[in-house]
Amino acid sequence: MSLVKYEILKQVVDLGSLTKAAEVLGLTQSGVSHAVQSLETEFGFSLLSRSRSGVKLTDNGERVLTYIRDMLRVQEQLKQEVALINGIETGTIRIGTFTSISVQWLPGIIRRFLSQHPNIEVKLFEGDYHEIEEWLLQGEIDFGFVSLPTMDSFRIIPLRQDRMLCVMPPDHPLANQPFVRYGQIANEPFIMPKEGSDYDVRRVLRKGRIKPPVPFQASDDYAIIAMVENGLGISILPEMILQGRTNRIVALELEDQSFRSLGIALNSAKNTAPATKKLIRCAKEWLTGWQPSPQTGILRSDG
Predict the structure, then answer these.
(1) Strand ranges (E), 27-78
(2) Number of H helices, E strands in the chain
(3) pLDDT at residue 294 is higher than 60
(4) What is the pLDDT of residues 228-276, one digit of tens each?
(5) Are strands 91-97 and 120-126 parallel, antiparallel or unpaired?
(6) How confident is the model at residue 1 (pLDDT cuts 50, 70, 90)?
(7) Is the pLDDT of residue 190 over 90?
(8) Lowest CB count within 10 Å: 71, 109, 113, 152, which one?
(9) Residues of 253-289 as b/e, b for ≥16 C-beta within 10 angstroms?
(10) Do β-strands 143-148 and 91-97 pair in parallel, antiparallel, or remain unpaired?
């Protein structure tokens, strides 16, 4: 069975479209369709169901896709290892990431990495915590940035801690305090991140034993900041989200100085490719010299 056909099927599934897969792979749509049909003939069952909204895997397709991803991953590792033996660096690294990492860390990490390894391609998959965990389990990414703790089945590389801060409009009654007590915000309208991105916030609220009313949920951290600026409620956000931005809000520590712990997760059931190991090593080295950006744009109680 041809691995080229496997790559074509994977692209169709990832993009949800025969046409988009053809564009990415530089093939005709009929060529992509023929490759999928050829696989279906070899396997003896349908792999895709087609509708107006696109294509998706059948139940049987779901069962075999995991093995197809594993074969493609091993092929990539073999290609990288052979290239290293021949004194050549090549390969593709797929990283799962979320907003604050993408904004604060990855530009610097990737710039340094590519300056040292220009022939290695880096692809970013941005999602929430739950999506990154699923991508790791399914083999869609080589490693992911996560907030700890995460699944026990992953191999974890701890990186840094990031303060969790209570954010509110500058005219809020609590804005002039040095820090915020949980009891003071127990009944405050609270803007919650969407499900999948709310692990850190819910962990803090559970620790404080409070359940404030939640009139709004937002899918984007910067949308939460905008809602707070407009007096629609308060929230709790990681400090990294607030750094380097001009926001008309006050950000205060909580009474217990809460943090989230950030790290890298790898699927411990799968071998790590040489290029991936190098990028992780580069990330750890880059972070030893990283310092949070000044928060001059944030209005604080101490002026």
Answers:
(1) 48-51, 54-57
(2) 12, 12
(3) no
(4) 999 999 999 999 998 877 778 999 999 999 999 999 999 987 788 888 9
(5) parallel
(6) very low
(7) yes
(8) 152
(9) bbeeebbbebbbbbbeebeebbbbebbbebbeebeee
(10) parallel
Contact of 57 with 51, CB cutoff 8 Å: no
Amino acid letter for position 166: C
Please report, for residues 34, 139, 164, 277, the alpha-carbon distance to residue 271 in angstroms, rounded to integers and kept in the order given.
32, 11, 34, 10
Q: How does DSSP classify residue 190?
A: B
Residue keyed to tokens 């750890």: 284
Closest CA relative to residue 100, chosen from 132, 141, 63: 132
Residues 39 and 35: their CA atoms lie apart, in Å, by 6
The per-residue pLDDT for 246 is: 73
- Mean of the pLDDT values across residues 114-143? 92
- Give the H/E segment covering residue 216: strand 216-218
Mean pLDDT within 117-137: 92
299 contacts: CB under 8 Å, gap ≥ 6: 170, 247, 248, 249, 250
Nearest to 93 by CA among 59, 129, 119, 116: 119
Distances in whole angstroms, Cα of residue 44 to Cα of each of 40, 111, 214: 6, 46, 51
In this structure, how many other beta carbons lie within 10 angstroms of the beta carbon of residue 27?
18
Helix or strand or coil: residue 47?
A: coil
Q: What is the pLDDT of residues 57-96, one digit of tens each?
A: 999 998 998 889 888 888 888 888 887 777 667 888 999 9
Task: Give φ, ψ of 187 to 5 degrees.
Answer: -115, 10
Which tokens belong to 20?
A: 């988009």
Please name every residue paired with 254 in a beta bridge, in sequence order, or none if there are none. Answer: 180
Query: What is the model's pTM?
Result: 0.74
Q: How far apart are the first and last CA of the chain?
A: 67
**pLDDT value at residue 302:** 42
Token pair of 278, please? 């190098």
Measured from the Cβ of residue 41, the count of other Cβ atoms closer than 10 Å reads: 9
Sequence-ordered list of residues with C-beta below 8 angstroms from that of 114, at least 6 positions apart, any chain: 120, 122
